[in-house]
Amino acid sequence: MQKAIDFLKEKFGPAVLETSNYLGNETAVVDPAKIPECIRFLRDTPGLEFNFMMDLAGADYPGRGDRFEVVYHLYSLSQKKRLRLKARVPEANPIVPSITKLYKAANWFEREAYDMFGIRFEGHPNLKRILTFEEFQGHPLRKDYPINKRPPIPTPDPLIEEGIRHLDDLAEVQADTREDITKPLGARHMLLNLGPSHPAMHGTLRVLLELDGETIVNATPEIGYLHRCFEKESEVKTYTQVIPYTDRLNYLSPLMNNVGYCMAVEKMFPLEIPERAAWIRMLISEVSRITDHCVAIGTNAVDIGALTNFWYLFNPREKLTDWIEALCGARLTTTYTRIGGLMRDVPANSKVFLKNCVKDILKAIKDTQALLKKNRILIERTQKIGAISAEDAVSYGFVGPCLRAAGVDY
Q1: Angle formed at CA 52 by CA 48 and CA 53, multiple of 5 degrees
Q2: Residue 86 burial (CB count, 10 A)
Q3: Which of 49, 51, 280, 329 has its CA 20 to 30 A from that of 409?
Q4: Which residues, in sequence order, are bridge partners of residue 74?
Q5: Using CA atoms, how far apart are residues 89 and 35, in angstroms rounded to an integer?
Q6: Would the pTM of this model clear 0.85, i.e. be above it?
Q7: Chain segment 72-124, per-residue pLDDT in tens
């Protein structure tokens, strides 16, 4: 079967500057000006169908003529294949055309690369910082950015300009369609800040809401409150010293982050781990996944006033967390894996203990379904609310339960 890179070379010839295949990762370096055309071709050509953009990231190579690189990680849901494209740009003029018209997920990814590396994306609809604040000096993931530099105290971003712009757009639509002419133009909706310190946010996130009564019609998020830039810290640490950082990137299932990071380093070397260690990693990842779902489903119902469900799921989760504590000495910041293996074997009584935990989890699931599945309040507050099409879910890069809920089998 012909490879995607071969199709790309046939179609774009000299615009494909370089190709490689390392550890099964197909990569093509492409002329930056041709990036939108190449990606559109890969997305829309039958038999290729790279319709899912998994990631877009910047990279910095200070000693190279084209210092900066934009890396596009593409995936074909139908062909189940990955492909990586790279666009290289010089420090003096780091500009790449935006692909926000091809993938909706590119909007935030491009803003992150702009914020962290100073790479500009021509044609982006709102190219502003996303994780740092507007007055931030420099770009923190550039290799020459001092790791100990202290930025100035920020001025909060009011976000009001974006909210007002949407209200102005709405007023124009109302004027054109004479929608609801009994009310003044633009007066139906109000702007309201939610977060960052609010019980409904489950973390430091702020959203400027546009409300029509109690219905949210638009939301402008500000997501940088929890950004730690751990990638910069990792530049001055050993591979093993990075593991504790991965705990903190997902504190609901930190063991999975430990595993994922170590697997990436081992693949890069490459390094083979003992079979028992591989099975234990699978086990701890499954335990982590279950505890994570317990938190997600338990607190989701709390947000609409159902506290009982929280206890149904948190009691068995607590027992699994007891096992994690026996495993590594911590309940949250686990740091259990090591490059090439694990810090220690599982506790001696793990088989019996985890079997009992599974029984508790199954009972909790049954109780939770009985409470929620036909619950009139839950159904009325969630059904047909915030629905997203399968096409949009893929374009935004949804994964996991949210993507499956949109009808995409992935």
Answers
A1: 115
A2: 18
A3: 280
A4: 53, 83
A5: 12
A6: yes
A7: 999 999 999 999 999 999 999 999 999 999 999 999 999 999 999 999 999 99
